Amino acid sequence: MNPAEWLQRTARRQPHAPALLEGTECRATYGAFAGRVARLAAALRARHSLAPGDRIAIYMPNAPAYLEALYAAWHAGAVTVPINAKLHPREAAWILGDSGARLAIVPKASGAALAVHLPPCVEAVIDPQGANWQAMAETPDSPPPPARMRADTLVWLFYTSGTTGRPKGVMITAGNIAAMVACYFMDVDEVRAADTALYAAPLSHGAGLYSFMHVIRGARHAVPASGGFDAAEVLGLASTLGSVHLFAAPTMVRRLVDAARAGAVSGEGLRTIVYGGGPMYRADIEDAVAVMGPRFVQIYGQGESPMTITALPREIVADRSHPRWRERLGSVGTAQSLVSLRVVDERGADVPTGEPGEIVVAGAPVMAGYWRNPVATAETLRDGWLHTGDLGRLDADGFLTLVDRSKDVIISGGTNIYPREVEEALLEHPAVHEVAVVGRPHPDWGEEVVAFVVHAPGMALDDAALDAHCRERIARFKRPKAYIARESLPKNNYGKVLKTALRAALAEDREDQPPRP
Predict the structure, then answer these.
(1) I need a surface site. Which of 23, 54, 239, 472 has the fewest CB within 10 A?
(2) Binning pLDDT at 50, 70 and 90, where does residue 494 land?
(3) 170: part of which helix (H) or strand (E)?
């Protein structure tokens, strides 16, 4: 099933229903949305000789045109490669090259910076806010229907990273998307035509994946006027639009709750807040329910099984009557309907109930593999099971509690930051001899990046110079928020840096600090 077919069906059923909103202003009905998408797809095929399976990258902030670009690519039979708009142009260019993207949809403001690093595979950079895009969307020709897709057709190439440094392209098929949609309706939430999906989180990630359910039901799609997340703006839009669905990282939930409390409101108009993408502390979700009521649903997933490993429904998040409600609230819920879930030891055998082990998943939503990376695919997909790299434990009722991340990924503001990328950038500085990057708890962002740095002989370390060095090489949100000078780094007998010791040192420093007023 081509996702663009869902859009066409809804447009035939309710052509005059509002579809795309910027703030509270309607920019397109479903009829107009579907028509623009079909004409854009036809123009892209005609002008650039697109063939099924060609990749189209989208490197832009949230905007109504983002949804047009996604569905136009699928209508044409292409594969979308959404790229985090916060990435440094050099990082975005690497993804363009690795994916072999033929076209890049990039606003003019970002296009100039990207042009310096553009790989030769990209034949054209198209401005989604420019006159050419508008002309393509308004071409009066009768466009063909959406391209036919099978369940194993690749539709979404999501770039994630591991501790090996370079991003990996997760191959999400049409069948994976259909399974994710079914799981959402069965395990997460219902969607109605009167609802609004509010995209305050990046459309290049989970928020974009949740567009499908709202297209199918003919709900509205709203992008905040700011293009991102502002707690006061979200609360204001929700109260005006009503029946709003929002996907949010735990840090966003915390900021929403703070803003609601400060404004003496409870989030009127917010029907459902699905939270995930990072650790949610139990005290924070207890506080959220106390302030804003039973609006919250938790999901746990990975790019490799998008949004579809477990779910904790609103009735359990809000329940305070069950004898073990606190324990359940601290979990990430039970397996979603189309996945099988196990917790295993290093040999792949199930661990006893309540014991920690690696979380492995199988089922229809699990990725087809990593793009042009058979080694990583074989390491991650073993005997039909996706090895998540996360540690957890299952109770007798099937509730999964996350224990730790076996990888050293830092999650700041709901976004993954991979230490090795930061370390490799810092090691290019002549004053840096050794470096180890870890996460430090942060009250607003969940974690922040800290770099332990050993200076090169005869060289001095300058925090400002290191910061400027990082800004030239990696996205601003990835750069360390603190640089800690060390004469040496703790290592084991094999010469591997002991990051556990560095985290312990940070914890001791926090304990030595006086409590906040």
Answers:
(1) 472
(2) very low
(3) strand 167-173
Q: What is the pLDDT of residues 96-111, one digit of tens each?
A: 999 999 999 999 999 9
Instruction: Give 462: exposed, middle or buried? Use CB within 10 Å, 0-12, 13-18, 19+.
Output: middle
Contact 427, 435 (CB under 8 A): yes
First to last CA, the chain: 56
Q: Which helix (H) or strand (E) holds 19?
A: strand 18-22
In DSSP terms, 362 is beta-bridged to 340
Query: Which of these, 72, 67, 83, lies nearest to 122 by C-alpha position?
Result: 83
283, exposed or middle or buried, with CB in 10 Å at 0-12, 13-18, 19+? exposed
212-216, 302-306, 333-337, 441-445: the lowest-pLDDT one: 441-445
Mapped onto helix, strand or coil, the DSSP state of residue 157 is strand
Contact 386, 305 (CB under 8 A): yes
The H or E element containing residue 510 is helix 499-512
Measured in residues, the chain has a length of 517
Considering the entire predicted model, what is its pTM?
Answer: 0.85
Contact 391, 360 (CB under 8 A): no
**Residues 59-82: pLDDT tens digits?**
999 999 999 999 999 999 999 999
- DSSP string spanning 289-316? HHHH-S-EEEEEEETTEEEEEEEE-HHH
Residues whose CB is less than 8 angstroms from the CB of residue 293 and which lie 6 or more positions away in sequence, other chains included: 266, 267, 318
User: What does the block give as tokens for 401?
Assistant: 């509690």
**Mean pLDDT of the 403-416 span:** 77
Written as one string, the DSSP assignment of 308-370 is: EEEEE-HHHHH---STTHHHHHTS--EE-TTEEEEEE-TTSPBPPTT--EEEEEEETTS--EE
Which residues touch 423 (CB under 8 Å, ≥6 apart)?
435, 436, 437, 451
Cα–Cα distance for residue pair 257/292, rounded to 1 Å? 7
Residue 363: phi and psi, rounded to 5, are 145, 180
In terms of Cα–Cα distance, which of 490, 491, 470, 472 is closest to 480? 470
Tokens (6 digits) for 516: 């906040």
Q: For residues 30 and 8, what is the distance between their CA atoms, to the nearest angstrom?
A: 9
Closest residue by Cα to residue 225 from 241, 217, 237, 216: 237
Higher confidence at residue 272 or residue 405? 272
pLDDT, mean of residues 16-45: 97
Give one DSSP letter per residue of 69-116, joined into a string.
Answer: HHHHHHHTT-EEEE--TTS-HHHHHHHHHHHT-SEEE--HHHHHHHHT
Show Cβ contacts of residue 393 under 8 Å, excluding neighbours closer than 6 positions.
Answer: 343, 351, 354, 355, 356, 357, 400, 401, 403
**In whole angstroms, how far apart are CA 416 and each of 89, 369, 405, 419?**
18, 20, 12, 10
List for the chain the helix, strand, coil content (%; round to 5).
35, 25, 40
Confidence check: pLDDT of 407 > 70: no
